[in-house]
Amino acid sequence: MWDNIDKIMKTMNLLLKTFAAGLGVLLASAASAQGDGDSIENDFFLDRPDSRKYAVILAGPTVGDENKSQFRRWAFSLHDILARDYGYSSDTISLLYDRGEVEGAGSQRIDAACDLVGIQQELARLQSVVQPGDQITIYLIGHGSGAEEESKFNIVGPDITGVQFAGMLDVFDQQDMIIVNTTSASYGFSASLSNEGRVVVSSTRSSSEKFDPIFSNYFIEALDNRNGDRDKNNRVSILEAFNYAKSNVEEFYEEQGRLASEHAGLDDNGDALFSLNPTTAEIDGRLAEIAYIDNLIDDTAGLSEKAIRLKSRMQDLERSVFILRGRRAEFLEQDYWQQMEELLVGLARVTGQFNEVVNPGESSEQ
Asked: Which residue from 129, 153, 194, 262 has the fewest beta carbons nearer than 10 Å?
C-alpha cells in the first residue's frame, strides 16, 4: 500500500510545489484514510454554481434568565456566523425566535416567532423559492420533551411533535437536507426526521436525557472561524462539526468530574439508528462527510465566474475522493489506487488553476 502512496505523492509533488501547504495536508489525509460503503452519496450534497443553500434557525421559548440568555446567544451567534463566514444573506437565512421579539439589540435578526404559524409560513416560503438540488439546513435550539412518536420540540403555543414536523418536511423531497436538533430529550424527535439523503444530528441518545445539553455550544464553536476543520480544506463538514462538538462535550464532563447527561448521535442513512461514533468506515458518517453548509457562491468573496467554476470543480473532485475512499472495499487494490491517483492529480491541477485566477502571479514567484 505504501508503495502506491509513494507513487501518488511523487506524481503530485511536481504539481503541488506551487500550491498552498494546506492542500497537501488534505490530500495526504484523503489518500491514507480508509472506509467501506455503497454509492448512495453520489446523488446527494453536490454543490453546483446554480444551486443555493438555505438555513432556518428555530429557537424555542425558555424559562429562567440563564437559559434565556444562553439560547439567545446560541441563536444569534449561529445567525451571525452563517452570514459572516458561510455566504448566507437575509434571503437565505431565517431566524424564528421565541415570541418574535427581544429586549435590546438583536430584533433585526428575527424573522418571526417560533410558533406553529411561524414555522408553517417559513416552510411554505421556502417551498416557493427552492429548486431541485438546493440544500436546506434546519437548526433546533431550545427544550424538548416526550418519548418516541410523542417526542416534541417546545415552541410558543402547542408544541410540535417529530411526526408532525416530518410531515411538513416531506415536500422537500428534491432538496438536500441537514437537521441539527440540539434540544433536550431530542432523540425521539430526531428519529422521526430520519430519511434517505438527510443528515440528522441529535444532541441526546434517548428521551431520558432531559437536562439541557451543551452540545449546541460546541457545534456552533466548530463552525465559528472553521474551528472544526480537521482535514484543513477550509471547510467544515457536518461530520467534522459533530465530532468536534462531541469531543468537547466529553471533555467538559470529564473536567467537571460529572457523569455525562447527554450523548449526541448522527444518522445519515435513513434507518433512524443514530451512531454515537460516526465515521466513514461505519454505516453512519459517509454522507455527513460530504455535507457542508458553506455556499459555493459567496458575494463577499468577490470571485469571478471563472473562479466560481473552478471552485465548483475543486469541490466536486474533493467530494469524489471522499466517496471513492468510502467505497474502497468494492475495488481491486490496483484499480482503487489508479482511480484515487487520477482524482488527486486532477484536484491538484484544478486547485493550481484556481489559485492562479484568484492570486495571479503568486505561483510563479514561489
From this structure: 129
Specify whether domain 53-289 bears CATH 3.40.50.720. no
Going from the C-alpha of 73 to that of each of 70, 101, 300, 354, the distances in angstroms are: 5, 14, 24, 37
* pLDDT at residue 362 greater than cutoff 70: no
d(CA 350, CA 160): 47
The residue assigned the cell 489518500 is 31
Q: How far is CA 49 from CA 127, 297, 315, 319, 353, in A?
A: 20, 7, 11, 15, 17
Taking only the tens place, the pLDDT of each residue in 87-118 is 999 999 999 999 998 877 778 899 999 999 99
Across the range 262-266, mean pLDDT stands at 95
Q: So where are the chain's domains? A: 2-44+303-365, 53-289
Q: Name the strands in the sheet holding 152-153, side by side, starting at the edge strand that comes first in the sequence.
A: 144-145, 152-153, 160-161
Q: Nearest Cα to 47, choosing from 290, 330, 339? A: 290
CB 190 within 8 A of CB 179: yes
Residues belonging to the chain: 366
